[in-house]
Amino acid sequence: MEENKKLLLHACCCHCSAYTIKHWKELGYDITVFWYNPNIHPFTEHQERLVALRKMSEIQDFKLIEYDGYDIEDFFRLTAEKPKDRCYYCFTMRLAKAAEAAEKLQNDYFSSTLLISPLQRHDLLELVGREQTGKSNSTFLYEDLRKHYSDSRRITKPLGLYTQKYCGCVLSEWERYRDYPPKDALELYSPVDPKNRYWCD
Ligand code: SF4
Description:
Low-confidence stretches: none
Helix content: 40-55%
Radius of gyration: 18 Å
Structural class: alpha/beta
Bound molecules: iron/sulfur cluster
């Protein structure tokens, strides 16, 4: 057991945070939750998710610090040229800032609530976390928490907090509605009628 070790935990949303915070606390870590997600678009969606996390920090009484900025231009600059590799750059931005904050706040470790999401690339998260460990004085803690995702949702469901419908960036929003159009809004998300289609040659 790691008694009194300080862990800066990057949070992607309240739903992934709930069980993840509990997990590391039970292992004896002193947790500070850290918000930095310039990948969440549009800004109103970013704020909805942040407000939900703030509410949860009041209900569950954990320490939350928020990065004062959005950095959306940096996100686009890094990801636009290689949209297929965008998750690598997205994780790099977020974990680099978490590592920087951990060092500044004298935390021995940093990690992310992304590690509980079955929708995220764990090989990439682990790789980026280790890369960022090499660049700071704090160490990335990796643990595969995916099997606890439903435990986390069981904690947040009764709280009625805002739940996102897509990963975060505009590309993920488009992919989500392209691949899984909501049944109650099929007209809105339906493909172009072939007779109305316009082609550019
Ligand atoms: S899909 Fe998710 S993890 Fe990948 S770039 Fe978009 S917001 Fe980031």
